[in-house]
Write a structure and sequence with these properties.
This protein has helices at residues 23-46, 51-78, 94-120, 123-152, 202-209, 310-319, 346-357, 366-378, 392-404, 415-420; strands at 213-215, 218-224, 231-237, 251-257, 260-266, 279-286, 292-298, 304-308, 324-330, 336-342. The protein is 40% helix and 15% strand. Helix 1 runs antiparallel to helix 2, helix 2 runs parallel beside helix 4 (123-152) and helix 3 (94-120) packs antiparallel against helix 4 (123-152). It is α+β, with helices and mostly antiparallel strands and 426 residues long. A ten-stranded antiparallel sheet has the order 1-2-3-4-5-8-7-6-9-10, sandwiched between helices.
Length: 426
């Protein structure tokens, strides 16, 4: 099992528990544990596998052990035969029990917050929220054990040897130059998922000849940067391509170069800019949303404008759920350049760029990162303290996990990696 076992299995040995407790209160604890065990069994049943199942399984083991020990204590109170476990005897601590009740209440609030977020989200974001809820439930199980110990003097055995993590079979590597064959009569390089696209256009034929991937309206080129051998990913959208435009193609380009992400609008005309400004006014409209005007950096060749770094990453995330992008660039003299790009196939393109530059197309919060770190730790890939900070330790742990399942070692929590971790569209 990939998840580290939190508690040793029950061992039938003679070593009586001597703590005195009120049987009625213990029966109430037993009912609560039964309800939690029923709930965790339901959670495990909703998933097909992955580390999130192992996390829930670890919680179930903790709850089952707690239940056995509470039953043991009730039997001791009645003077009946009991299943006993070798554990260190501890004294009750009412003050600690009271403090732990407060921590239990706070953890329960975090569970409810994560459940509320999951109810309002979808896809991987929803799965991340459910995992945070499951992590907090595991914390609740541990806090509950501490409470039982402090309240009734019930001690728990500790694990001494971590379980060996299991490794999934590596996924078959994807040939970046291959694409599904199009419909009858179309070129061999056509992306068969989108037969409505004209793949006889020169850019697609050239991309196929050079061994690049084709996804919808996009071509995807992967190579290494000359300066540092880092991933150089160039993806180009040709939905506005005009073979009769001899000034150069009008395209939308998403790129990762030397670790920096860029989104560039490139067109055929030379643009007149204000020498006092390095940017153009650009109005964008995503599908039927309200248009917004912002500033995009001027390109050095004066034939377009772009977004770079974090701004490009944020905008690409916004575009993932969009089918059509309208762009209007306004020159210094007021001349407008309007273009509509069909974004079909953009998921593959944006994921390639994000992987190359080590970021995720998902808008992940610190709580999301903490949940991912918890799952990596549970699988034996040490990401350190789950603090939600995605630093070098987390990236190294993610790379080790990606290597174990045959994914590109980017260190980024991209969609493909999160699916392998057990996050899916539940």
């Amino acid at each position: 099992m990939a998840a580290n076992r939190l508690f040793a299995l029950l061992i039938c040995l003679l070593a009586p528990l001597s703590a005195i407790a009120d049987e009625a209160a213990l029966q109430k604890e037993l009912l609560s544990l039964d309800a939690q065990i029923s709930e965790v069994n339901s959670t495990i049943g909703r998933y097909d596998g992955g580390l999130i199942v192992d996390l829930a399984t670890a919680r179930r083991e903790a709850l089952l052990l707690a239940r056995q020990l509470v039953q043991n204590q009730i039997a001791a109170e009645r003077g009946e035969a009991k299943t006993e476990i070798i554990v260190p005897q501890v004294e009750t601590d009412p003050e600690k029990a009271k403090r732990l009740l407060g921590e239990i209440a706070a953890a329960q609030e975090r569970v409810e917050e994560a459940e509320q977020e999951a109810a309002e989200a979808g896809g991987l974001i929803q799965a991340l929220a459910w995992s945070r809820a499951e992590t907090e439930r595991l914390t609740l199980a541990q806090l509950n054990m501490g409470y039982l110990q402090a309240k009734y003097g019930i001690a728990f055995p500790l694990q001494t040897t971590p379980a060996e993590p299991s490794v999934s079979a590596p996924a078959a590597p994807k040939d970046s130059a291959s694409n599904p064959v199009g419909d009858a009569g179309g070129p061999d390089w056509a992306d068969g998922r989108y037969p409505e696209i004209d793949y006889s256009l020169i850019p697609f034929e050239r991309a196929s000849r050079e061994g690049h991937q084709i996804s919808g309206w996009w071509t995807i080129e992967s190579e290494s940067a000359a300066i540092d051998d880092s991933p150089l990913i160039t993806t180009i959208n040709y939905s506005a391509y005009d073979p009769n435009d001899y000034g150069g193609p009008t395209v939308l380009l998403a790129r990762c170069s030397e670790g920096e992400t860029a989104l560039i609008f490139l067109q055929s005309d030379y643009l007149m800019s204000d020498y006092r400004s390095n940017s153009f006014a650009v109005t964008v409209r995503l599908d039927d949303q309200q248009a917004q005007t912002t500033r995009w950096s001027r390109l050095t060749n004066n034939k377009g404008a772009g977004l770079f770094g974090a701004k490009a990453e944020d905008f690409l995330r916004r575009l993932l759920d969009v089918e059509e992008l309208f762009i209007r660039l306004v020159e210094k003299n007021g001349e407008q350049h309007d273009v509509v790009f069909e974004l079909t196939g953009h998921a593959d393109a944006f994921e390639a760029v994000a992987a190359g530059c080590g970021w995720s197309t998902l808008a992940l919060t610190e709580a999301d990162h903490a949940a991912i770190q918890t799952l990596l730790n549970a699988g034996g890939f040490d990401a350190g303290q789950p603090d939600g900070k995605w630093g070098s330790g987390s990236r190294a742990a993610m790379k080790r996990f990606q290597a174990s399942v045959g994914l590109p070692e980017t260190g980024s929590p991209d969609r493909a990696t999160l699916n392998k971790l057990g996050f899916g569209d539940q």
